[in-house]
Structure formats: structure tokens, C-alpha cells
Design a protein that fits this description.
Radius of gyration: 21 Å
Strand content: 15-25%
Order of helices and strands: EHEHEHEHEHEHEEHEHEHEHEHEHHH
Number of helices: 14
Strand order of the largest sheet: 3-2-1-4-5-6-7
CATH superfamily of the largest domain: Glycogen Phosphorylase B
Number of strands: 13
Helix content: 40-55%
Shape: globular
CATH topology of the largest domain: Rossmann fold
Structural class: alpha/beta
Number of domains: 2
Largest sheet: 7 strands, parallel
CATH class of the largest domain: Alpha Beta
């Protein structure tokens, strides 16, 4: 088996995060693998792929030159001669499906989001039969994909993209007389809802007797300037800081007491699960996989999305009980280590591999 894994970009986080784990496992089962990136973007996902010794071809170009991208991908696939195409995210899936159809190569397609833009939804509905197998990265995404794209049950599987590591650094006990250190990680993009977090902090500071807190947001993206200006508009410089990108995720998370994920929409949300793995309780929007993993009032709190007032209330509640954060974080850690073990990841991966072996080029 020779797999061409087609991905939109090599931007850090998101759909690029699980690529080394997925393709390393496929390689362990005997497949030859290679990544084809339709554009590089910030390239922050590249070091992990190189570390896994996975070869990569990267197209020079942007995100809207679709015809040129299709020509490039078609030539790459003609030269590589894969037995299977594996696609991730809408652009890569649509172009991969066309190339797969052209060369009679079976296509396997990831879905990573519990929301699709209307036009993307229409396109994927039209081409859904071009993929032999669909994979949802979480229960919620699988349900969404099955319902909205009308995928038959026998053509879709759930493979959670997170493989928990019980040996990562763990967060420490939060001292009641110290500043509560709050963290979030993600692309600075509207979907991640950091503007909502900033508005929530503005409301929070109007409450009485708010304990000392500081929020660090790690990530890069198109919303940096808007978020920076909003922080200054609300005079929150002493409470919120934009930290930039970090590749030292586990080490960074271990320095904090609480994690917040204010997203408007999510699929699996690897970052929040990494925080739970590190022993942090999570305050998050009830979107994607998050309400399935977070146990309310035990390992964290979930709130309605796009609701600064509810987010402020949730943060305030936990800030008032810093002595409970460590115990909540330990329960969060136990949850993800149990639910997303290496054994489970590998077992589902083997099922996917066996399904792929039954697909043959014509």
C-alpha cells in the first residue's frame, strides 16, 4: 500500500497535528507514506513531520489558486503512483477527489469540523460518493458528517485524532494566595473566539472581589492585530497577553492552573485535550467533542458558545475556588488518558488500515 496524504497546509496545530501519528502507524502496518501539502503557510507543522521521517512535497502558491493547485496535485500523484489518497479538510478533499477520479485511485477523507461553510457543504454533498471512506475525528464530527452530507453508516468511521501520553509533565497545585494562571492555545482566528474571551474578561473585572488572574494566549494568525487592539481598548494588558506560537506544548501547559477554550466551533479540539492530559481543568464552549469529554463541575465547565457573560461567570466561579483546580485537573487527566489511550488509537487505526486494504484501484 502506498498512501498519498493530501493536506491543505503545514500550518501549526489543527488538521496537521495528527499527521505524524497517523502516518507513522500506517507505516508500521506496512504502508509507504508521503505528505502532499497544497501550500505551506507558516510551516509550523513541518518539524514534527520531518522528525517522524515522513517525506513531504510542498506546493509553492496560495490558498485560492485552485486550478493551478489541481494541476500540481495531478502531476504529483501521477509521479508518485499511490494506491490510496487520503485527504484532510475541504480544499484538499475536493481536489483529491478529482485527482482520485482521474487516476482511479480510492480516496479516504477526514472531516475535522462540526461546521462547514454553506458553499463547502454544497460541494461536499455533490462529491461525497467520490470518497470510499469518511473519517470523523470525533463523535460529534462523525454525527455531523453523516447527517449533513448524508453519508451511509457503512462508509464512515470515527477515529479520535488524539493519542494521550501519560508521561507528559503535569500541572502543579495552585496556591490560594497566588495569581491564577490561565492558558489557551490555538490559531488567532475568529472561529477560536478569543475576542469573546477578551469581552468576558472585561465583564469579569466588573465583578466584586475578583481574585488575581492572568491569561496567556499562545498562537499566531490573522486576528492578532484585532485582538491586540481589543485588549488595549478594554485596558486588559495586565490580565491578557498574546504570547505567540510555542512548540513546547506540554512544558508550557504544566506552568498553568486552568485552561480556557472559547471557540465558536470545534471538531475534536486537540489543544483542550492536551491541557486535560497535563492535569488542567478546562472552561470551554460546548462545541465539537468538548462537552463529551469535559464533565461539568468535575473536570471543568462548559458554557454556550459566543456568550461572554456565561464565560465570565464560569471563570469567576473557578477563580473563587483555586484550591479545587488541581483535583479537577487530575480528573480531567484521568479521563483523557482512559478515553484516548495509545491502545485505542492503534486499534482503530488498524481497522482503518484493513478497510483501506479492501479498496483497490480499477
Amino acid at each position: 500500500m502506498r498512501i498519498a496524504y493530501i493536506i491543505n497546509s503545514l500550518e501549526g496545530g489543527g488538521a496537521a497535528f495528527p499527521v505524524p501519528s497517523i502516518l507513522s502507524l500506517m507505516r508500521d502496518y506496512g504502508a509507504e507514506v508521503k505528505v502532499f501539502a497544497l501550500t505551506q503557510k507558516n510551516g509550523k507543522a513541518l518539524p514534527a513531520i520531518h522528525k517522524a521521517n515522513i517525506p513531504v512535497s510542498i506546493r509553492e502558491g496560495g490558498i485560492k489558486d485552485h486550478f493551478q493547485t489541481l494541476l500540481w496535485l495531478n502531476q504529483q500523484i501521477r509521479n508518485y503512483k499511490p494506491t490510496h489518497l487520503w485527504t484532510s479538510l475541504t480544499r484538499a478533499t475536493l481536489l483529491g477527489q478529482l485527482v482520485g477520479l482521474r487516476h482511479n485511485i480510492p480516496v479516504i477523507s477526514w472531516q475535522h469540523a462540526a461546521y462547514l461553510k454553506p458553499w463547502n457543504l454544497r460541494l461536499l454533498k455533490t462529491t461525497r460518493s467520490f470518497s470510499k471512506l469518511w473519517l470523523g475525528d470525533s463523535q460529534r464530527v462523525t454525527q455531523f458528517t453523516q447527517q449533513r452530507l448524508h453519508i451511509p453508516k457503512e462508509k464512515i468511521m470515527t477515529w479520535p485524532i488524539f493519542k494521550a501520553n501519560p508521561n507528559v509533565l503535569k500541572a502543579k497545585v495552585c496556591q490560594s494566595d497566588h495569581t491564577v494562571k490561565i492558558v489557551s492555545m490555538g490559531r488567532l482566528h475568529p472561529v477560536k473566539g478569543y475576542d469573546i474571551l477578551i469581552q468576558a474578561c472585561h465583564l469579569l473585572n466588573q465583578y466584586s472581589n475578583v481574585p488575581a488572574y492572568h491569561i496567556s494566549i499562545y498562537g499566531e494568525g490573522i486576528e492578532y492585530k484585532n485582538l491586540y487592539n481589543l485588549i488595549h481598548q478594554y485596558q486588559l494588558q495586565n490580565h491578557i497577553e498574546l504570547m505567540g506560537f510555542t512548540s513546547c506544548v506540554a512544558q508550557t501547559l504544566s506552568q498553568y492552573n486552568l485552561y480556557v477554550q472559547p471557540s465558536r466551533s470545534e471538531g475534536f479540539c486537540v489543544a483542550a485535550h492536551e491541557a486535560m492530559q497535563a492535569g488542567l481543568p478546562v472552561v470551554a464552549s460546548a462545541v465539537g467533542e468538548l462537552p463529551f469529554t469535559i464533565e461539568n463541575h468535575k473536570s471543568g465547565l462548559t458554557i454556550s458558545p459566543e456568550n461572554p457573560s456565561a464565560l465570565a461567570d464560569a471563570l469567576y466561579k473557578l477563580l473563587l475556588q483555586p484550591q479545587d483546580l488541581y483535583a479537577m485537573g487530575q480528573l480531567a487527566r484521568e479521563t483523557v488518558i482512559t478515553q484516548f489511550s495509545t491502545k485505542r488509537f492503534n486499534t482503530i487505526g488498524f481497522e482503518v488500515f484493513n478497510r483501506m486494504q479492501s479498496f483497490t484501484s480499477t
